[in-house]
Amino acid sequence: RAAHRGRRTEQSLINKPNVSSQYHKEIQKRRTFGIISHPDAGKTTLTEKLLLFGGAIQMAGAVKSRKTAVHATSDWMAIERERGISVTTSVMKFNYRDYEINLLDTPGHQDFSEDTYRVLTAVDSALMVIDSAKGVEAQTTKLMEVCRMRNTPIITFINKLDRDGMEPLDILADIEEKLQIECVPLSWPIGMGKGFKGVYDLHRRQITLFTPSQDTRPEDCIVVQDLADPMLDELVGVFAANKLREDIELLQGAANPFEYEHYLKAGQTPVFFGSAINNFGVRELLDAFVELSPPPGPRATTTRMVDPSEESFSGFTFKIQANMDPAHRDRIAFFRICSGKFTRGMKVMHHRLGKEISLSNATVFMAQERSHVDEAYPGDIIGIHNHGTIKIGDTFTDKEELKFTGIPNFAPEHFRRVVLKNPLKMKQLQKGLLQMAEEGAVQVFRPIVGNDYILGAVGVLQFEVTMTRLKDEYGVDATYEPLSYTLARWVSSDNKQQLREFEKKHQFNLALDAEGHLSYLAEGSWRLAHTQELFPDIVFHKTRESV
Ligand code: G4P
């Protein structure tokens, strides 16, 4: 909520006199977003089309090749190592019209992980892609939950209209019910599958006709001021025309009008229909996206809101990418600029360590002229090379001591017990796990009873990556044992008496995380619900902020 109150404030701050107008223009033209979707809904295809519109054509192959190449961990690592692909596709920067767009990748297939969630803490808005045949799917629901935490505004694209799918009204009802967000269609499909004729733009009252495998041209747009016009029957056929008339009549009675403020507060999502693979409806989506989605807004810190128009430099780390090269143990920390201008070589304070560092080797992510850019602005992401000194959530500024909030750990859903093959390597194991926990690669728990290490992850690939890195970087040979836990919750309570009773009763399900916070590991949501009932004063948290 704070973020949205902030966003309104930002509007009133736009004409602050002490802000150089060029600086302010740079902020206003930035759009930093991520795509939320379930695997196979069309995120990669849509990303490629967006990049094509942005003129970053050579990137398109990279996006696809990364996805198809991710078969197994070994492949994935080899690819990371050889080509650093995940670094280049982690942030895809492109220009469209007057806008500078940062598309942050939200890995979704085998490499679905806590990073996927955390990327969403660094965006200003999101694009939701839904497969028209499947409606809302599990991963979309999870990502939506993360968007809810900061009320991130969302624009929806219903994809694959060239295939038979659910009735458009049913899709909207599905989204409203499962994601608890009001849908406002700004376009409407005419038919679907083999009978897909195009979309009707409800705002401009024009029809764009669909031709399979062919990009839409401006002349394909036909203005239809009155749906009763017999021209409509000629254009799309009597059946489709009548169906459209019926649908629109229904919509006019039932659908909510679009309210910009409501969208900014994530209460409403504008909905577009199309087919990414046919590049149909994508330009319309992108046009609406740049116009509607918000530029970088204020961000909360532990002490105050930081407005992007402030000229002092500030930002936070939301993702750390290990290089995987045993010869150089360097990592890239992905850093979102929240205020001020980045210039190469500038000195900033790394507040957690109380150290000044020089940002001379930082990478500014650009789809094309990556190495030539020496400046970046709020909303942009820079990559900072380091040797394991940077942690997720670390704040850097050029003077004031600040700590950005809203970059939490997310409750893992998969768990493994680490079994060390050589007990003499215990020290290295501890060091490696602590380091990787700080990077957000995996979460580490120590059960209250016993001496085990339990790893928790949001996606199972995290386990394989952790094991390979333990061996390569720390010389630790270990294996995993499966565990039956399926969820973790951080616990707290003001009722000390109840907390003690809870700790006693559930000692075998309790563990301390890498920062020593008490966590409850449960075998299923039913178990959690039961425990919650028994201990009503205990709060079970799905996320935990680092300190
Ligand atoms: P993802 O990143 O969300 O996982 O999805 P991706 O874009 O890879 O798309 C998943 C599959 O859906 C791909 O087919 C892709 O070609 C297809 N697809 C994407 N958009 C559309 C669309 O508008 N209409 C139809 N009919 N299909 C679409 P695939 O067979 O898995 O991969 P490929 O062999 O085509 O690359």
Automatic annotation (TrEMBL):
InterPro entries to which the protein is assigned, alphabetical: EF-G-like_DII, EFG_III/V, G_TR_CS, P-loop_NTPase, PrfC, RF3_C, RF3_dom_3_sf, RF3_GTP-bd
All copies of domain Tr-type G, residue ranges: 28-297
Binding site residues for GTP: 37-44, 105-109, 159-162
Listed GO MF terms: GTP binding; GTPase activity; translation release factor activity, codon nonspecific; translation release factor activity, codon specific
Pfam families cross-referenced by the UniProt entry: EF-G_D2 (PF22042), GTP_EFTU (PF00009), RF3_C (PF16658)
One annotated GO biological process: regulation of translational termination
Localization in the cell: Cytoplasm
PROSITE patterns for the chain: G_TR_1, G_TR_2
Cellular component GO terms, alphabetical: cytosol
Gene3D superfamilies named in the record: P-loop containing nucleotide triphosphate hydrolases (3.40.50.300), Peptide chain release factor 3, domain III (3.30.70.3280), Translation factors (2.40.30.10)
Keywords: Cytoplasm, GTP-binding, Nucleotide-binding, Protein biosynthesis
Domain of life: Bacteria
NCBIfam families, A to Z: prfC, PRK00741.1, small_GTP
Family of the protein in this entry: Belongs to the TRAFAC class translation factor GTPase superfamily. Classic translation factor GTPase family. PrfC subfamily.
The protein's role, per its UniProt record: Increases the formation of ribosomal termination complexes and stimulates activities of RF-1 and RF-2. It binds guanine nucleotides and has strong preference for UGA stop codons. It may interact directly with the ribosome. The stimulation of RF-1 and RF-2 is significantly reduced by GTP and GDP, but not by GMP.
PANTHER family assigned to the protein according to its UniProt record, in alphabetical order: PEPTIDE CHAIN RELEASE FACTOR RF3
Name by which UniProt lists this protein: Peptide chain release factor 3
Organism from which the protein derives: Desulfobulbus propionicus (strain ATCC 33891 / DSM 2032 / VKM B-1956 / 1pr3)
Gene it is expressed from: prfC
